Amino acid sequence: MTRWSTIARKDVRSLVGSRTGKIGIGLVVLIFLFSGYLVPTTTSNPTMTDYDNFTRGIVLFLVPLFGLLLGYRAVVGERATGRLTLTLSFPHSRADIVIGKFVGRGLTLSAALSVGILGGAALIKYPFGSVTVGIILSYLLATLLFGLAFLAIGIALSTLTTSLRQATVLTFGVFFLFVVAWPQLTGFLLQGLEYLNLANNTLPDWAVFVHGVEPSMLYQRALDSYVSPNKLTSGAALGSVGPWYLQGGPAVLLLAGWVVTPTVIGYLQFRRTDI
Question: ∠245-175-14 over CA atoms, to 5°?
Answer without folding.
Answer: 110
